[in-house]
Amino acid sequence: MRIPLEDPASKKGGCVMSKRMICGLVAILVLILPVSDVSAAEMLPEGVTMVVLKESAAPHLPGVAKTRLVELRMAPGAKWPHLIAESGFCTALQGKITIEVGDKTVTKFAGETWVMKKGKRVTAYNRGTVEHIQHMWLLIEE
Asked: Which of 40, 72, 49 is nearest to 136 (CA)?
């Protein structure tokens, strides 16, 4: 459908779209455009950043539509309580991270790899003095 931007009956031109139409179009765009590279549903706390590095189809993994490589960075003192949205595995590249899952606490150091399971509520802390960097391979279900 073509929306005329000029009034054909007027020699002056001008917009015939009403303010209501413009507001409606803006509302639709807000609903359909992605908000974030990683998660539109969740805001990251101060000192925590995530960037998608790579995404690939995963036809060889039953039940998995694609894999996504994400880099997580946490500044010293950062705290991030969250729900794990996708299963996958992580590798610490720099610094250390302390992870609380229920009544269990574990600290992972650079070079260590671990598994994360979808649906777990965790709190991650960088209690170190350097930025923590890790790569996460997420398994995005079909």
From this structure: 72
Across residues 57-64, what is the average pLDDT?
Answer: 92
pLDDT tens string 84-118: 999 999 999 999 999 999 999 999 999 999 999 99
Residues in the chain: 142
pTM, two decimal places: 0.69
* 57, 123: one domain: yes
Amino acid found at 88: G
**41 phi and psi angles, rounded to 5 deg:** -85, -10
CB-CB contact of 93 with 131 (8 Å)? no
CA distance 62 to 73: 30
Q: Which domain holds residue 91?
A: 48-141
Q: Are residues 63 and 4 in the same domain?
A: no
CA 80, 85, 87, 88 torsion-angle sign: negative
DSSP state of 86: S
Residues 77 and 102 in one domain: yes
Are 124 and 65 in the same domain?
Answer: yes
